[in-house]
């Protein structure tokens, strides 16, 4: 038992990067936790406010193309795959979770990766919990011809973008030989 707690404490203190140096996890965990909790709280509050204040109709925000409009989504992000069975959504969620767990260590090596992980996890969890309540997700942000979306959808989209940037940055670092400098 003591060995397991020592191993866990060592794991939480830091991890080794691909170059072998120890990386402190604490700042990245604080950043990821803050982003995660902030995103979930903001999503829950905006969904509750949408249900409370948008039942009577949309609120236009200075232009015809931008409005707060109550809508319910029975598909995935941006109403995509609206007729898909729940079991297929569950399989997709499990595959996404497996990919995140598989890449967890490398994601936590950078602030960008930790931020991406937190945003995708918060958005996915928020929408999953909302869907479990009544089989649908509450959306409220309407921009021109785009499907109505919510804060969780924004978090997922930004998180995936950051994941792409993080993976490209990792490939760029791996392509440069150790001990060489780029630039003048």
How are the SSEs ordered, and which strands pair?
Elements: H1 2-13, E1 14-16, E2 22-24, H2 26-53, E3 59-63, E4 66-73, H3 86-102, H4 104-107, H5 111-134, E5 137-143, H6 151-175
Antiparallel strand pairs: 1-2, 3-4, 4-5
Helix pairs in contact: 2-5, 5-6
Quick overview:
This protein has 184 residues and is α+β, with helices and mostly antiparallel strands. It has one domain.
What attributes does this structure have?
60% helix, globular, 184 residues, 6 helices, alpha+beta, three-stranded antiparallel sheet, two-stranded antiparallel ribbon
Describe this structure in words.
With 184 residues, the protein is an alpha+beta fold. The model has no long low-confidence stretch (mean pLDDT 80). The chain has 6 helices and 5 strands; from the N terminus they run αββαββαααβα. The strands form 2 sheets. It has a 3-stranded antiparallel beta sheet with strand order 3-4-5. It has one domain (24-172). The termini are far apart. It is globular and about 60 Å long.
């Amino acid at each position: 038992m003591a060995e397991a707690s020592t191993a866990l404490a060592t794991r939480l203190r830091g991890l080794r990067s691909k170059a072998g140096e120890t990386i402190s996890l604490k700042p990245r965990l604080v950043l990821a936790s803050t982003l995660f909790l902030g995103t979930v709280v903001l999503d829950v509050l905006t969904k509750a406010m949408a249900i409370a204040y948008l039942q009577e109709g949309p609120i236009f925000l200075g232009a015809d193309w931008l409005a707060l409009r109550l809508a319910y989504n029975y598909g995935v992000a941006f109403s995509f795959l609206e007729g898909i069975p729940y079991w297929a959504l569950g399989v997709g969620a499990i595959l996404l979770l497996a990919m995140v767990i598989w890449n967890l260590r490398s994601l936590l090596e950078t602030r960008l990766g930790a931020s991406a992980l937190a945003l995708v996890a918060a958005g996915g969890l928020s929408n999953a919990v909302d869907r479990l309540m009544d089989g649908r997700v509450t959306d409220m942000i309407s921009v021109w011809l785009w499907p109505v979306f919510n804060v969780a959808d924004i978090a997922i989209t930004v998180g995936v973008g950051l994941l792409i940037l993080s993976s490209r940055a990792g490939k760029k670092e791996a392509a440069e030989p150790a001990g060489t400098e780029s630039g003048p």
